[in-house]
Design a protein that fits this description.
alpha/beta; Rossmann fold; 12 strands
């Protein structure tokens, strides 16, 4: 894997990405419904860095992030978790000052040491869209992307699939890469698909299928170009 690339924590997913992983200095959106288990992708992304001796940062916006932290604590050695910078970006007292949440994240990210931290998880991006609307959320993404480029961070956002196609496109345009998770119901049961989009001009749109077992994400197909 190139030195300007970091692993998603899922080898088959890395192989499907044009650069062999996520590029440093980029922002990535992982979008899906609740049953898609996007939380496990965020957890895997963080844990991959921690297991390699890196430090990582996790900005918790809502209680939906609690499950990720619980799973991290259950599946990761306590000593390794000391390398995780966990920031409660919307603590109880701040719920009266919602407008301060974006500034809190920006100010903290500007203090991150790029020599020790190169991966960041922010969950959920849905919060910003619901509280501030698409335009202001887009401005926030521009600022975070600027920090990511300067510090060579890879920033992953998790987001629920709540927007119609037109509005979703305005969000997608701000990101360097999109991973879209879908849950498909068939007579034989349920399976999940993962679409890789927009990671580079050379990146083909690829669809993989996957399942989850415990805290593990397992890719179950080598993928096909759509």
């Amino acid at each position: 894997m190139a030195s300007n690339t970091i692993s998603s924590g899922i080898p088959v997913l890395d192989q499907a990405l044009h650069h062999g992983g996520f590029k440093k200095g980029s922002i990535v959106l992982l979008i899906g419904d609740h049953s898609s288990r996007k939380d496990l992708f965020g957890l895997t992304f963080l844990r991959e860095g921690l297991l390699k001796g890196e430090k990582a940062a996790f900005y918790d916006i809502e209680a939906s992030s609690d499950e990720i932290m619980d799973l991290l604590m259950e599946s990761t050695d306590v000593d390794i978790l000391k390398n995780l910078r966990f920031v409660d970006a919307c603590p109880e007292y701040s719920k009266f000052f919602i407008n301060a949440v974006p500034a809190r994240i920006i100010e903290d990210m500007r203090r991150l040491d790029p020599l020790t931290i190169n991966r960041v998880l922010i969950n959920p991006f849905t919060f910003f869209i619901e509280k501030f609307g698409l335009e202001d959320s887009g401005d926030l993404l521009i600022m975070i992307r600027d920090i990511a480029i300067k510090k060579k961070l890879t920033v992953m956002f998790l987001m629920a699939d709540i927007l119609d196609e037109r509005k979703m496109q305005s969000v997608i345009d701000k990101f360097d890469g999109i991973i879209e998770l879908r849950t498909v119901e068939i007579h034989e049961g349920t399976y999940h698909t993962l679409d890789i989009k927009k990671f580079s001009s050379q990146q083909k749109r690829i669809q993989l299928t996957y399942n989850t077992m415990g805290v593990e994400v397992r890719i179950t197909s080598t993928g096909r170009i759509i």
